[in-house]
Design a protein that fits this description.
Mean pLDDT: 78
Number of helices: 2
Helix content: 10-25%
Order of helices and strands: EHEEEH
Largest sheet: 2 strands, antiparallel
Shape: globular
Low-confidence stretches: none
Strand content: 5-15%
C-alpha cells in the first residue's frame, strides 16, 4: 500500500532526488548527510506525544478536515 506523508523539504534535497517530474512510486534515493524536513499536520495529545499523519492518496490529504 502506498502512503503519503506530508513533509516540507529544503531545496537542497532536490539535488539528491533528481528531476521530481520523473519520480515514480517505489523509487528510492540516498542523501549524503543530515537534512532537516518539516512534517505538516502533526497531531499532539495531552501528554505531548506527537503523531505523524499518513494519507492513502493526495486526494485524501487535500480534503478539508472536519472538526470532531
Amino acid at each position: 500500500m502506498q502512503m503519503h506523508i506530508p513533509v516540507e523539504m529544503p531545496k537542497e534535497m532536490f539535488k539528491y532526488i533528481g528531476n521530481p517530474d520523473t519520480l515514480r512510486a517505489g523509487d528510492s534515493f540516498s542523501i549524503g548527510g543530515d537534512i532537516r524536513i518539516k512534517f505538516w499536520h502533526l497531531a499532539e495529545n495531552e501528554q505531548r506525544q506527537r503523531f505523524i499523519p499518513l494519507f492513502t492518496s493526495a486526494e485524501v490529504f487535500d480534503k478539508e478536515v472536519q472538526p470532531v
